[in-house]
Write a structure and sequence with these properties.
This protein is of the alpha/beta class. Helix content is about 40%, strand content about 15%. The strands form 2 sheets. It has a 7-stranded mixed sheet with strand order 1-7-6-5-4-2-3, sandwiched between helices. Strand 2, helix 5 and strand 3 form a beta-alpha-beta unit. The longest helix has 21 residues. The radius of gyration is 21 Å and the shape is globular. It starts with 5 loop residues before the first helix and ends with a helix. Bound molecules: pyridoxal-5'-phosphate (PLP). The site of pyridoxal-5'-phosphate has 15 residues, from helix 4 and helix 5.
Length: about 400
C-alpha cells in the first residue's frame, strides 16, 4: 500500500480493534489499576521485562491509543499525552534542562508560555533569551554555549509569525541545542515539524485536534527515547497525566481533523482575502496571503493550507475593534481556537494581558489587534456577520 494520506491516518491510526471484544471503536478504559496474574509476573511488570499496564498515571490503553494516533499524524516514533497544552509545553521545555542552562525562545509566543518562561524557569536558575525566530541571524546571536533548547512557536500567537523550522534546526543542532516546536496553530494536518528537523513537536490538543471545544489536553511527539524521558519526568513524576476520558474525546476529534482543518483553512483564506481588500481594515496577517512576511517559508513548510487563524486591525484602532467585537452575532466572543465554531479574541485585553506592554509590542500585538479562529460554518454566513459588525 502507498503511504496513506493524513485523512486516512487520522481515521485509522492507533485504533486497532479491542482484542477482548472486537469493538472497532477503542473502548474507554477508566480503571486506575490493572490486575496481575501472580507474584512472578507482577515483579516482571515492575522490572519492565514483561509488557503490560500497572497504573493509569504510568500508562492507560485509551491514552496510548490516542498517543499512537498523534504519533502517526506527526510522522513520529512516539507521542506522550499530558493533562493540558501547558503541561505539554512545560514538560517539553524542561525535560532536559538543569539549573544554569539557557533557552532561546520565539519573541512571539502564547502568553502563558511566555509567563511560564519569565516567572517559573527563572526560579530554577534557567535563563531565557527571546529572539525573533523568523530572523535566523537573531537566533544565531541569541544562542550561547550553554543553550540547551531553542523553543519555537510557528505559526505564532497572535500575528501568525512564521519561523523556518528547517533553518533553525540546522543552526541549533550545529551549536549543540535541541529544537522544540509548538505547532498548535498548524495542527498535524498543516505541518510536520519533525520532518523538518525539529526534535520535539508540541500541541495544545484542546485546539484543532479536539476541534469541538470540549476537552483540555496536550501532546508531545518525538523519538522513542525523548518520549520515554518525557513520560518519566512530566507524566509519572510531575503527575500531569491525561485522563482516559479526555484521550477518548480527543481521539474522536482527531479522526475528523483533516476534514475540519481543510474546510477551516479554505474559509480562512477567503475571509483573509476579503478583509485585506476591505477599506475598513488597516492590516491583515494570514500566512496564506502573499503580503504576510512569512508567506514564502509557510508555503515551503506547511501543507494542505495555512490554518484557521487570522489576525487583523480594524481601521479606527481599539474603539473600532471593540465595536466589531460587541456586534458579531454568529461569531463567538471567546478565547481558544481550532474549534468548529468561529471565535473572536482581542489579545491585548485578554490572552496577552499578562505580557508586559513592551514585550507585547515587540511581538507585534497592537492594542487594536483582533484574532479570528475560523470554524467550519459557511463562509458567506461568516462574512455577513463580520461585514455587518464592521458597518458604522
Ligand atoms: N500553545 C499555544 C500556541 C496555545 O495557544 C495554547 C492555549 O491557547 C497553549 C499552548 C496552552 O494550551 P492549553 O490551554 O491546552 O493548556
Amino acid at each position: 500500500m502507498t503511504k496513506p494520506h493524513p485523512a486516512t491516518v487520522a481515521v485509522h491510526a492507533g485504533d486497532e480493534p479491542d482484542p477482548a471484544t472486537g469493538a472497532i471503536e477503542p473502548p474507554l478504559v477508566l480503571s486506575s489499576a490493572y490486575a496481575f496474574e501472580d507474584a512472578a509476573r507482577t515483579a516482571a511488570r515492575f522490572a519492565g521485562t514483561e509488557e503490560g499496564f500497572i497504573y493509569t498515571r504510568w500508562g492507560n490503553p485509551t491514552v496510548e491509543s490516542f498517543e499512537r494516533k498523534i504519533a502517526a499524524l506527526e510522522g513520529a516514533e512516539a507521542a506522550v499525552a499530558l493533562a493540558s497544552g501547558m503541561a505539554a509545553v512545560h514538560g517539553a521545555i524542561t525535560v532536559d534542562l538543569r539549573a544554569g542552562d539557557h533557552v532561546v525562545a520565539s519573541a512571539s509566543l502564547y502568553a502563558e508560555t511566555a509567563r511560564m518562561m519569565r516567572d517559573r524557569l527563572s526560579r530554577f536558575g534557567i535563563e531565557v533569551t527571546y529572539a525573533d525566530t523568523a530572523d535566523l541571524d537573531a537566533v544565531g546571536s541569541a544562542v550561547r554555549e550553554h543553550t540547551r533548547v531553542v523553543w519555537v512557536e510557528t505559526p505564532a500567537n497572535p500575528v501568525l509569525t512564521i519561523t523556518d523550522i528547517r533553518a533553525v534546526a540546522e543552526l541549533a543542532h550545529a551549536r549543540g541545542a535541541s529544537v522544540a516546536v509548538d505547532s498548535t496553530f498548524a495542527t498535524p494536518y498543516h505541518q510536520q515539524p519533525l520532518a523538518l528537523g525539529a526534535d520535539l513537536v508540541v500541541h495544545s490538543a484542546t485546539k484543532g485536534i479536539c476541534g469541538h471545544g470540549d476537552a483540555i489536553g496536550g501532546v508531545v511527539a518525538g523519538s522513542i527515547d525523548a518520549c520515554r524521558r518525557l513520560r518519566a519526568d512530566a507524566v509519572r513524576a510531575s503527575g500531569a497525566a491525561m485522563s482516559p476520558f479526555t484521550a477518548w474525546v480527543l481521539a474522536r476529534g482527531a479522526r475528523t481533523l483533516p476534514l475540519r482543518a481543510e474546510r477551516a483553512s479554505t474559509t480562512a483564506l477567503e475571509l483573509a482575502r476579503r478583509l485585506e481588500a476591505d477599506p475598513r481594515i488597516d492590516r491583515v496577517w494570514y500566512p496564506g496571503l502573499s503580503s504576510h512576511p512569512g508567506h514564502e517559508v509557510a508555503r515551503r513548510q506547511m501543507r494542505n493550507g495555512f490554518g484557521a487563524l487570522i489576525a487583523f486591525e480594524v481601521r479606527g484602532g481599539v474603539e473600532a475593534g471593540q465595536r466589531l467585537y460587541d456586534r458579531v452575532r454568529l461569531v463567538a466572543r471567546a478565547v481558544s481556537l481550532g474549534d468548529v465554531r468561529t471565535l473572536l479574541t482581542h489579545p491585548a485585553s485578554t490572552t496577552h494581558v499578562s505580557m508586559p506592554p513592551e514585550q507585547r509590542r515587540a511581538a507585534g500585538i497592537s492594542d487594536g489587534l483582533m484574532r479570528l479562529s475560523v470554524g467550519i460554518e459557511h463562509v458567506e454566513d461568516l462574512w455577513s456577520d463580520l461585514d455587518e459588525g464592521l458597518c458604522r
